[in-house]
Sequence to fold (557 residues):
Amino acid sequence: MALIIVYPVLYTGWMSLQEWYASSVTLPKFIALANYQHLFIADPRFREAFFRTLYFAALVVSGEAVLGVAMALLFNREFWGRGLVRTLSILPMVATPTAIALIFVMMYHPTLGVMNYLVTRIGVGPLKWTYSSQTALYALALVDVWEWTPLIMLIALAGLAALPREPYESAVIDGATGLRILWHITLPLLRPILIVAVLFRAIDAIKTFDIIFIMTQGGPSNASETINLLLFNEAFAYFNIGYASSMAVALFAIVMGASLILMKVRRSEW
Amino acid sequence: MVASVAVAALSPKKRRTTDVLRTTGYYALVCLAMLPTLFVFYWMVTLSLKTQVEAAGYPPHFFRFAVTFKNYAEVFQKNPFILYIWNSSVVAAGSTALGLIVGLPAAFSIARWRQQGLALTVLVARIIPGISYLIPWYVLFRHLHLVDTYLALILTHLVVSLPLIIWVLIGFFEDVPEELEHAALIDGCSYYSAFWRIALPLVRPGIVAAAILSFIFSWNNFLFSVILAGRHTRTLPIAVFNMISYEEISWGPLAAAATMITLPVIILTLIVQRHIVSGLTFGAVKR
Fold:
């Protein structure tokens, strides 16, 4: 366990204070905080990747939250085939991301892809999807939303099943109607579990790697380069281990920030 | 509410018609909501069954096309695909087995003795971005000449499988009544054998669920394998990713390969679907 989890954490922290190329024969050189100084002050590419990462995470999580809750509300009653619907909803989350990314690459093809056929049928586009720097990030976000909306939906469904009945009974007596009940009773009661769901998703969305690496590799012209992608290239294309480690620490800090909020929320809710 | 009051005011016959309409409308909405999910899988499978000409035909052929299995044959002819399947299976099974050995006692002690520190460690391990493990592992395994070995992949996939296993199992251990173990202890059992002979058999369904979940997510892993696997241990996701780089436009075989990677996952999912959400949310949602 120490080898697999503790050692990497310590090693990354230590290497982030060094200058070292894994491709060269020279030994690591201690340069204290110079990597961080460069990272936060002199590296516009990192700054762009930083905000792009947060933007991507905000984009996918808000999309997934709205769609997930809407679907949960739709499915929250007895109907024929409910079990089947539940089973099918799980599939996008467990299907191999590589396979899903591949299928989307083919569906997004600008001239032969089925997505352009579908959107032109409803009068939008044709779009360039992952093939244009203007739309690439959104096209990737759509894949993520497709994959992970079901998670929010299933969590929201579990939350809906556990709601108390009394507020609804008194609301009906008071003459409240469907939408007002939804807005003033259901959503506030769901809020605690939704916050947890959203934070779990946010933590993972910040770390999104597979679909971006497979579909765009951060391109076109860095348009979809998140910290994860930049870091991967810095480490395994340029072997700039010291600098990449400082990026890893920064990424870790971002994710940790989101997690601390999560744990605080969890503790107060459970 | 208003709608149901209005329906109640109608004559019985009209009310029935309205009910039928509402039900039909509801099922139409359900189908619409499920359409994007189903379409992607449908498209994957149908692309894999189309000929090269029809797969790249525009406008796309949605329902009517000649079914062929040539794409599947081609995947096996042009790539050592059996080797990749074997590699993926060995790594996933290995990290699952190792994950169970470590995870079972860990989950038990978190559930029984409220080991908050341990629980927190698992949570943190799950939260740390995978890529920040990868740099030290790469340097270490390269130094030990372990890159491109099953051992490196199995060990590193533990980071994926262990939190899943522990979080699924905590829920199961918590459902085992503590009195059973107390009774065993009074009858002269040691803590160890109380765990081994009382708790373990009772959580067998949980072990199956945890194992399958861990297998799935190790099977799916891309990030660790893309760096630490080599020619001999290349797993399926990496192999299929490499196919895309070289065969940009031959969609049929790519879709066939994608279908073949996904199929085992889907079959396994059908077995453990009830526990998947619990595993993915650190037990935040039980069922």
User: Anything to note?
Assistant: Residues 1-35 of chain B form one domain.
